[in-house]
Design goal:
The chain is an alpha/beta fold. The chain is about 25% helix and about 20% strand.
């Protein structure tokens, strides 16, 4: 039985993945620490037998016998979409408390530590955040490995890149993170009947994705969602630009539909649910990690020493000051793929409003983005008199 404790637990994406991989007889979630009351409500509902702690800053110790400590710490200060204040920012800087907890476990160092965050931390300030994480881990005697992965490898149609950092004192994290490699995604496997993009952008980027949505965002705590849009070229005029529902978004993150449907007040357009789902860890990613922790494999990658110049590589491992660059794809596996229109029902999905579409067109038309054949033409046709 693997005992898991989760810090910055969100809605339990990592822990849900461990459950799916190992079953109720193979894993026990003994502690979840989360400060946001909305996320706490989801955790209390979905993990009813687990102790919920409200603040990592005041967590004095872990339960006895923890095998895996997880920490999807806030990415607000590290992501390109966030404040980019760096690892010392008020949100992302909370990761220091993970190492405080580990230091208190000095007499029994944990078998495994799992950290998840955005790839921008490898580049921001020349990877200052990753340098900090590695330094803290090595000071506590842990060896480590990390890998950038794309959530599409789990079969969900969401292009979401995240760094998975795994550390251990007595185990070799390479046997988990580098035991599988399926190569890059085969574009020939993708359907060409739906394309995801962000209608809130247009001048500098679209987040364009074929047969997938771009990375889901958190939206706001006030219940203002920030869903991507979907272009369905084969749809009827007026129904070619759609938005996923919150239930769709849950599935795009690998959760069962309705995972966050635990609130009494649904009058504010799903309340905090969009932010909860957008901030979550894709379930299938942690399912893969848990499977490999239970059954380690042989590393299948090519390696070379890294000279520490510039941004950090997309995958590496190290210990005692040594850093080894790893040549590996972002697709450890290729689980059966759910096409975007297998998740989003085009006949019932909400349409992107004329106002939203017009605002997007105003931004798009000032630049050279969105040149996929038919895309701009369909926007203009669906707007019709609205821009005349």
């Amino acid at each position: 039985m693997i005992r898991v404790a989760g810090l910055f637990a969100g809605i339990g994406g990592i822990e849900r993945g461990f459950q799916e991989a190992l079953g109720d007889d193979g894993v026990s979630t003994v502690l979840l620490c989360e400060s946001w009351d909305a996320a706490q409500k989801v955790l209390e509902h979905r993990f009813p037998d687990t102790d919920i702690h409200p603040d990592v800053r005041h967590l004095k110790k872990l339960p006895r016998g923890v095998d895996v400590l997880t920490a999807g710490f806030p990415c607000t200060d590290l992501s390109q979409a966030g404040r980019t204040a760096g690892i010392g920012g008020s949100a992302s800087g909370l990761v220091t408390h993970v190492f405080d907890v580990l230091a208190k476990q000095a007499k029994r160092r944990l078998p495994w530590l799992l950290i998840e965050n955005v790839p921008n931390m490898l580049a921001l300030d020349n990877g200052k955040a990753m340098s900090y994480l590695v330094q803290e881990l090595e000071s506590l005697g842990y060896r480590w490995a990390y890998r950038t992965v794309d959530s599409r490898f789990t079969g969900v149609p969401q292009r979401r890149r995240r760094v998975i950092l795994l550390a251990s004192v007595r185990e070799d994290p390479r046997s988990v993170l580098f035991a599988d490699d399926a190569g890059q995604h085969d574009a020939g496997e993708l359907a060409e009947d739906a394309y995801g993009f962000y209608w809130t952008e247009g001048r500098r980027g679209l987040g364009w994705a074929v047969d997938a949505v771009p990375t889901l965002k958190g939206g706001s705590t006030l219940g203002i969602p920030s869903p991507p849009a979907i272009w369905h070229p084969e749809g009827e005029p007026g129904r070619r630009f759609l938005k996923p529902s919150i239930s769709d978004a849950e599935q795009l993150q690998g959760f069962p539909s309705g995972w966050t449907d635990v609130f009494d007040d649904s009058s504010r357009r799903n309340g905090p649910r969009w932010k909860l789902v957008g901030n979550a860890v894709t379930v299938g990613v942690s399912r893969w990690v848990a499977t490999r922790i239970a059954e380690p494999g042989d590393s299948v990658v090519e390696e070379e020493m890294w000279d520490r110049s510039g941004r950090w590589p997309t995958a590496a491992w190290g210990s005692d000051g040594k850093i080894v660059k790893v040549a590996v794809s972002e697709f450890p596996l290729r689980e059966p793929y759910r096409h975007l229109l297998d998740v989003i029902e085009p006949h019932s999905a909400e349409e992107l409003s004329q106002r939203a579409l017009a605002g997007f067109w105003n931004r798009l038309s000032s630049g050279n983005l969105g040149r996929h054949p038919g895309f701009r033409e369909h926007i203009l046709a669906d707007l019709g008199a609205a821009i005349a």
